[in-house]
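The passage that follows is intended for readers who have already worked through the single-chain material. We present the inputs for a multi-component assembly, then the predicted structure in tokenized form, and finally a short commentary. You are encouraged to pause after the input and sketch how you expect the pieces to fit together before reading on.
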Amino acid sequence: EVQLVETGGGLIQPGGSLRLSCAASGFTVSSTYMSWVRQAPGKGLEWVSVIHSGGSTFYADSVKGRFTFSRDNSKNTLYLQMNNLRLEDTAVYYCATCRGGYGYFDYWGQGTLITVSS
Amino acid sequence: DIVMTQSPDSLGVSLGERATINCKSSQSVLYNSNNKNYLAWYQQKPGQPPKLLIYWASTRESGVPDRFSGSGSGTDFTLTISSLQAEDVAVYYCHQYYTTPWTFGQGTKVEI
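Having made your guess, compare it with the prediction:
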């Protein structure tokens, strides 16, 4: 059974840094594309980043240069390093699998909430 | 970026009646080389992550009831719930994965 568990959320001041983790089970994270999708409180879904099976990464313009998506194959875990956080980064962050290397999301974690506030 | 626009923003439907949600993309999401529309639909209930309903515009995900169907091609797509059930109350999102940045519609809230 595929499971994704995100951790690392919390309250952080503007300009601060945080690292999210997504622990995967039931499959190998390096075998498929994986993404982060976020949802601001009461708002819609926003794609954040993707990591390809080969390790290439792509980002939304809103986070490019500030966020870094990586993975540890030995731990079957994904990471989102978030630097220089802004108020508008406040959201629930979900990790999700992209089936077959395409961009639709078939499995989602429960999400972790990041609140950026002074 | 491809802009996805859903209509309506909210929809009230009686139990057992049909619900129709539209999604329009600012450019075609049909990939000519494989004739596939890179369009998915998700259902999100309060406090839960989104759930994949439809991909390739019209392929129902395993386990999704057959009252959910997707149609359309190019830039215009529709999600239809043929006979609304109480458990279908949720927000529905369309999503293009034709090109990054992958983008979502703003969501359509379906109520009884």
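Commentary: The interface with chain A takes residues 38, 40, 42, 44, 49-52, 55, 61, 93, 95, 97-98, 100-107 of chain B (CB under 8 Å). The longest strand of chain B covers residues 19-25. How closely did your sketch match?
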